[in-house]
Amino acid sequence: MVSKTFLMVKPDGVQRQIIGDIISRFERKGLQLVGAKLMRVTTELAEEHYKEHKGKPFYENLIQFITSGPVFAMVWQGENVVDITRKLIGKTNPKDAEPGTIRGDYCLYVSKNIIHGSDSEESAVREISLFFNEDEILEYNKDI
Ligand code: CMP
User: ipTM score here?
Assistant: First the structure.
């Protein structure tokens, strides 16, 4: 079934100027970019987005890191998009991420793992609504 997911290039990915490569990987797979913006994440938004991690040892660093510079927030659409994007992104910890995945190719540390992707359909709906207004998500012209 066609659905949507939320992906976000984190401050390390933006700083390293690999937004283009990341977008290419998803486009090449056949997924559609239906929403995108370069933005700063406020502390309030970061805390809401990562609320399931509150209390974990890495939580404070995570909030500090995600608010430290611009992120590139995206909504992608396609068949099984949550599962497919998670496969293309790779395991959370780059030491376990396979070569050929984004994290397998680009990073070494779990605290700076380049990109976030929703982990379920429910998370995707929640995260999309946190970062995007409805009118910022577009449909493609099917006649072209
Ligand atoms: P992300 O997919 O954005 O979701 C939560 C983030 O917490 C995760 O990617 C990691 O970047 C970050 N994080 C930092 N330290 C850890 C850790 N020890 N275990 C899991 N996630 C961590």
Answer: 0.93
Could you tell me if residue 113 is inside a domain? no
Identify the H or E element spanning 104. helix 102-106
141 found inside a domain: no
- Pocket test residue of 60, 110, 119, 130 for ligand 1, highest count of atoms within 8 A of CB: 110
Share of the chain above pLDDT 90, in %: 96
Phi–psi pair at 98, nearest 5 degrees: -70, 145
In a domain, 30, yes or no: yes
Domain of residue 15, CATH code: 3.30.70.141
**pTM for this entry:** 0.97
The rounded Å distance from CA 111 to ligand 1 centre is 6
Rg (CA), the chain: 15
Region label for 97, one of left (φ > 0), alpha (ψ between -120 and 50) or beta (otherwise): beta
- The single-letter code of the amino acid at 16 is R
- Residue type for 57, please? P
Number of domains in the chain: 1
